[in-house]
Amino acid sequence: MIGALTLLLVYQLVGEIIARGFGLPVPGPVIGMLLLFLTLVVRGRVDDELRRTAGGLLQHLSLLFVPAGVGVMLHYQRLADEWLPLLAGVVGSTFLAMAVTALVLQALAHRGEGKKEDGQ
Amino acid sequence: MNPRFDEIWVYLSTTPLLGLTLTLVAYQAAWWVYKRARFHPAANPVMIAVALLVAVLSLTGTAYQTYFDGAQFVHFLLGPATVALAVPLYAQLPRLRTMLLPLLGALAAGSLTAALSAFGIGALLGASTQSVMSLAPKSVTTPIAMGVAESLGGLPSLTAVLVILTGILGAIGARGLFRLMRIEDHAVRGFATGVAAHGIGTARAFQVSEQCGAFAALAMGLNGLVTALTLPLILPAAMRLFGL
Fold this sequence. Notes:
The structure holds 2 protein chains of 2 kinds.
Chain A: H1 2-21, H2 28-43, H3 48-59, H4 66-70, H5 76-113
Helix pairs in contact in A: 1-2, 1-3
Chain B: H1 3-12, H2 16-36, H3 45-60, H4 64-76, H5 78-84, H6 86-91, H7 93-124, H8 129-135, H9 142-152, H10 156-181, H11 186-208, H12 210-241
Helix pairs in contact in B: 2-3, 2-4, 7-8, 7-11, 7-12, 9-10, 9-12, 10-11, 11-12
């Protein structure tokens, strides 16, 4: 587990260095994810240890968003003043984006494959 | 209040232990409710845990910054967890290869829709410029959204809240929306959830199926990249359109 955690942190660190070094607007961890993905593609397999550690971290991914969510406390005033445009913007755009993505993907994928994919 | 307890409280409230433990306890409670609700999306654990913590902090008069001194250890794990998303992504490699072009097309459409509709709805309903700028990147994962908001002149901490709200809404509403649209394919469901509702949507998608989660993770990562690269270029034009 420590080995795999070290690996994840090293990729994150390299991602941060690349992001800062080249002044990219993309956060380090996302670059780290892409690099790790490329590494796995090149190596053609995933160690058991990495699979278990990644699975453990991702199983409770929701937990990791809790501290930022509690930051709602800092914005009571603005939320009270602008709740309608903010709420409408969040609700409207979330479901619009979800529907548009699904429709476009469904249309393009099923045209390309020429058969209907079934969900599992 | 008992003076001894008062002393203990004064000590504890200055250590990170309290914020960290509170976060985990609140999450355990939220998870218990989620499980009891048989993982119904409306019992979203992020929403319940945040509500519990806000209640406790408000009742005890604890400042967010004090809480975050401890909770930051949990927050920090978002970094390695993001890197770890490469693993389930890799497991979907065969399917990714066959769907690459459709995925990129859907990504472009979904990413633009998310940012421009958030921006447009907010601007039309009279949100302040700062709020609109905080709203635009809200469909991408927290660290990216905060960075983009900052570069646009929004408020990063407000963006973080809007991002979390987006994720919770997406995680709660996805199943209903896809049923309504009669979309069965878990790859399509996952990808759309990841584009619109980033990590919290992805967390929910992983609870639905491995394939759903992997495609959500892919979508979240790609949408983060695309939004970070394009939104600072597109938004000035959109602002002129709305006269901001």
